[in-house]
Amino acid sequence: MLIDRPERLVADAAAPKGTRLPANDVAVALDRRLSRETEGEVLFDPASRGRYATDASIYQIMPVGVLVPKSDRDVSIALEIARDLGVPVLPRGAGTSQCGQTTGAALVIDTTKHLRNVVAVDADSRVATVEPGLVLDHLNAQLKPLGLWFPVDVSTSAQATIGGMAGNNSCGSRSIAYGNMVHNVLGIDTLLADGAAVSFGPMKEATGRAAAIGAFVRDLALRNRGEIEARWPKVLRRVAGYNLDIFHPQSEKPYTDDDSVNLAHLLVGAEGTLAWTRTLKLKLAPLPSAKVLGVVNFPTFRAAMDAAQHLVTLGPTAVELIDRTMIDLALANPAFAATMRTALRGEPAAILLVEFAGDAKEALLTRLVRLVELMGDLGLPGSVVAMPDDAAQKSLWEVRKAGLNIMMSLKGDGKPVSFIEDCAVPLEHLAEYTDALTEVFARHGTRGTWYAHASVGTLHVRPILDMRRDGARKMRSIAVEASALVRKYKGAFSGEHGDGLCRGEWIEWQFGPRLGEAFRSIKDVLDPNGLFNPGKIVDPPKMDDGALFRFPPPEAPAPYRTIALVPVLDWSAWDVQNDPRTEAISAPGTGGDSTGGFAKAAEMCNNNGHCRKFDAGTMCPSYRATRDEQHVTRGRANTLRLALSGQLGSDAFTSDAVRAALDLCVSCKGCKRECPTGVDMARMKIEFLAHYTKRHGHSLKDRLVAALPDYAHGVSRVAWLANLRNRVPGAALLGERLLGLTAKRKLPTWRSDTFWRARNASDFASAETTLAAARAGVKTAVLFVDTFNGVFESENAIAAARVLKAAGYTLHTLEKGRGHHCCGRTFLTSGRVDEARVRVGALVDALVPFAEAGIAIVGLEPSCLLTLRDEALALGLGAKAVAVSRQALLFEEFIAREAKVGRFAVAFTPVESPLLVHGHCHQKAFAAVAPILDVLRLVPGAEPTLIETSCCGMAGSFGYEASHHAVSMAMAEASLLPAIRNAPHAIVVADGTSCRQQIAHGAKREALHVARVLERFLPSP
Ligand SMILES: Cc1cc2nc3c(=O)[nH]c(=O)nc-3n(C[C@H](O)[C@H](O)[C@H](O)COP(=O)(O)OP(=O)(O)OC[C@H]3O[C@@H](n4cnc5c(N)ncnc54)[C@H](O)[C@@H]3O)c2cc1C
Ligand code: SF4
Ligand code: SF4
Questions:
Q1: Which of 446, 471, 717, 886 is surrounded by the most beta carbons within 10 Å?
Q2: φ, ψ for residue 703 (rounded to 5)?
Q3: Which residues does a 6 A CB cutoff place in the pocket of ligand 2?
Q4: Do 611 and 634 form a contact (C-beta atoms < 8 A)?
């Protein structure tokens, strides 16, 4: 067996530590032994390794292989094997590090799938013991009922693991009150490089190996005491190097409550270089029962920076900055605009979010009053927007947390790059420091956006650099100048995100050679043979070594290039460049992408890991079901990027490895809306399938599913025959064998009473009458009836027509021959883009006269109607498609809009049952769920409840496929089906035909399209 390694990943003896791959036979032996001796998943194929080659930094190093251990025992065995074979080990949590510390030519051990349990919680002493792969938000969800939380509130709380947070000595917005990880870790149980299980905790309780290590480090610290006092930054936010100062703390905040020494703190911030963390003992805090927020609006950025030192005297739990660029980006983002507006008074140059927390809201309100007074004293009366309301605060914090992600959505090769993004300076120098650094950026032809932790002098700033071109050179020059400023103001060069590859070489600059040597001797004592994450903290490579970049520049041994590809969809909006000074984007199609913008669209993923979240929202249902990196949006985007840049071998783009990565993508479009950089995997899957099927052909099942709209009308005539599959014993099993459609489900029932046969023809006006009515100012609409609501569930379309007629609309519906027009969705889903284009083109042609007359095109099935607002615009259909997209509305969107302006008024009869609503993923992606609730509320007595769900798991034909049935059910069982079972008397509302089928199969309940609910409560004629 050969471990496949493309050119740029070949072992190179001269390569820096941590970047050298072992010989092939060693890698093969490692793979074999791990597979044989552990129960974990062992991933050594190029695509899997590629998915673990990056974190949220600019770097990429191919690992030797990946182990996803099932248990602590697996880890212990893996360490032993790695030690035997001389292969380094790289512990990994969510891989959201920004500095490259989670990349390396090592065996990556991923804790997130199985090692994520809360081991124990002692609520009385406020201590929790957890496994390293536990995500912070998941821990806090478990602690909430106890009135406790773990208060190191990193922005990545929905995906960051406690092990990774400890590895990086992470800190959150409220660090001024709670400190960093180092202030909140009480103990760490480890496996050392030689396999010994050693517990690190209070020095006074240490015995055996821990005591010996403690004594060694204490002596080392003593010998270097003078140097520590002279060199160590005195700010709270210092995370560089090892915490050698635990014996003589230099931090503004003591590491322990009683000033004692805790040896676990030596491992905090060690970036996985000293030991494997098995469990962590954490100090919990009482959950504040009340919080208030004051948003201070500043006329200049400098005024905001000057004010920080005064604001902290009020004792806030957070003072967080959002600058004008970030404000503008948030205002331009539909997900954040409304919230952002609530915080603004006029057009501030910057705002500071000042939070106070405590036991009682009344007491906190007086702190807000003091804030207002202080700002008056500082010459800024009327600058504070008070936010006592919890919901408003939460929304604004979400915008602040999304800060970096908002910034990273910039299209083009220039990206905001992290390397000096978290320098920390004392507050009295913050204004001068930010002014001076802004000048540095300007001298290098770029600029930075500033945000984050003003309370502790750590402002995040990332200049826009093009790492594929001259970024490396500029990066070094800017770092040199920034470091001089940090020294001038006695700050810390590495204040939050760690050292990794981008700041490793600055550790000695910060601490000097003697302390550099001291760090090396700590590494030598704990990990003498360099088993753990070599090349980080000790012996790091150069920060600007282009060979280690995700996008290596032309002078690197293997520069980044993309393959030539003619895309089937229009990706030109991504094929652009930007101006680093103004962030202005060039015209679509001018970016020089050899794939017409498709590769650049995949490259938008910056690995921040937000798609690994499990909270509200849709993204990413397949990851939620499998917890595999392969099945998360990030894993898919990385796979595409690697394939499109030839890093997975030739012809990799149309390979089975890429197909496997996209296989469980249900095309829910969750990422289109929720990925902060707008990675739209559903659209990418269409592009991929078009090329893949060109090479490999279509399966019979795919052909049958795609062409359903073509034959549905004809087959409906012999519905009884088509329904035999559901009735005749053995037919379903035969279908599974021949077509791959699961025998575990009934297929939708064919019926002869289609909408086109069963409708009341007099309900519909001709095209001419409708256009004339619109011209005369009469209320009109075109009802677009899709295959599913037209053939299988004609009662929905008939109900929609009845409701609209009852409200007095002149209605027209489209007909093609004796059947219907098709939106192309089923063809798109199987990558048959040319055929989709023909059908969408015909539909657009049929609709455009109405659209141009300003008549709404009203659809029922979200995935069909919304195709007109999404993919139809990427098929090269020109202005006609744009005109149609502007008038295309879902039934509920139309009614909600009309009701708002008083054009839809129907005296519905009251409802008594509870209403439980499940939003279709595409409705969520297009912010079209709220209108369902709005129109249901038109019914007297209706109090609809939205089920907090991701994808229902059916997703067109996905859930019908035998190979996907289990995953499909797992998605449904995550929250949708239990919520429905828990509400036995509720009317269940679901607009998606797939969702209704999944609910019928899984919960044995009928769900109704909102049109049918409204029809049910129409007044009697
Ligand atoms: C958009 C964005 C916002 C961010 N905001 C913040 C913020 O507010 N505050 C902040 O501090 N950071 C922030 N970060 C950085 C990062 O999210 C945090 O450092 C986070 O805590 C890392 O967690 P992780 O699970 O991703 O760790 P990983 O990146 O997987 O690992 C981090 C380090 O810990 C080591 N490690 C992991 N598990 C173990 C183990 N079992 N044993 C030993 N070592 C281990 C790894 O080797 C690595 O060196 C942000 C990053 C992004 C992309
Ligand atoms: S796909 Fe989007 S959300 Fe996921 S890591 Fe990439 S950029 Fe972040
Ligand atoms: S479309 Fe849905 S399933 Fe596919 S990657 Fe995006 S969020 Fe995940």
A1: 471
A2: -65, -40
A3: 605-611, 633-634, 637, 671, 675-677, 679
A4: yes
Mean pLDDT, residues 866-874: 98
From CA 475, how far away is CA 497, in angstroms rounded? 17
Q: Which of 151, 150, 154 is nearest to 171 (CA)?
A: 154
pLDDT tens across 58-92, in order? Answer: 999 999 999 999 999 999 999 999 999 999 999 99
pLDDT value at residue 616: 80
How far is Cα 700 from Cα 739, in angstroms, rounded to an integer? 7
863 C-alpha to ligand 3 centroid (Å): 14
pLDDT at 507 over 90: yes
Residue 178: what residue type?
Y
Residue 3's pLDDT is what? 46
DSSP 607: -
* pTM, to two decimals: 0.96
The DSSP symbol for 1015 reads H
Residue 740 tokens, joined: 């791959």
The alpha carbon of 41 and the centre of ligand 1 are apart by a number of angstroms equal to 22
* Average pLDDT of the segment spanning 319-332: 90
- CA 349/CA 327 separation, integer angstroms: 9
- Is 504's C-beta closer than 6 angstroms to any atom of ligand 1? no
Of the CA atoms within 13 Å of residue 92, those in its CB half-sphere come to: 33
pLDDT band at 818 (very low <50, low <70, confident <90, very high): low
What is the average per-residue pLDDT within 30-42?
A: 98
| Ligand 2 atom closest to the CA of 677, numbered from 1 | 7
Tokens for 674? Answer: 């929720």
**φ/ψ (deg, to 5) at 738:** -80, -40
3-state per-residue secondary structure call for 768-829 = HHHHHHHHCCCCEEEEECCHHHHHHCHHHHHHHHHHHHHCCCEEEECCECCECCCCCHHHHH
Peptide bond into 620 cis (omega under 30): yes
Whole-angstrom Cα distance, residue 538 to residue 519? 7
Mean pLDDT of 964-986: 96
Distance of CA 264 to the CA centre of its chain: 31
Q: Give mean pLDDT, residues 363-372.
A: 96
Per-residue burial over 442-456, b = 16 or more CB atoms within 10 Å of its CB, e = otherwise? eebebbbbbbbbbbb
Residue 169, ligand 1, Cβ within 6 A: no
Residue 439 CA to ligand 3 centre (angstroms): 42
User: Which token pair is 975?
Assistant: 């929250």
- Of 194-198, 262-266, 578-582, the range with the lowest mean pLDDT is 578-582
Average pLDDT over residues 465-473: 95
For the record, the structure tokens of 603 come out as 């490259």
- Angle between helices 430-443 and 301-311 in degrees, nearest 10: 150
Compute φ and ψ for 947, nearest 5 degrees: -80, 130
Instruction: Dump the DSSP string for 209-240.
Output: HHHHHHHHHHHHHHHTHHHHHHHS--SS----
Distance CA 623, CA 632 (A): 5
- Between the CA of 570 and the centroid of ligand 1 the distance, in Å, is 36
- Of the candidates 689, 693, 673, 672, the residue with the CA atom closest to the CA atom of residue 681: 672
Amino acid code (one letter) for 212: A
**Residues 864, 823: Cα–Cα separation, whole Å:** 6
Q: Write the burial class of residue 985 (CB in 10 Å: 0-12 exposed, 13-18 middle, 19+ buried).
A: exposed
Higher pLDDT, 434 or 335: 434
Average pLDDT, the chain: 95
Tokens of 598: 């498709």
Q: How much helix, strand and coil, in percent to the nearest 5, is found in the chain?
A: 45, 15, 40
Neighbours of 910 (CB within 10 A): 9
Is the Cβ atom of 56 under 6 angstroms away from ligand 1? yes
Q: Is the pLDDT of residue 405 over 50?
A: yes
> What pLDDT, on the 0 to 100 scale, is given for residue 299?
97
Helix (H) or strand (E) holding 714: helix 708-716
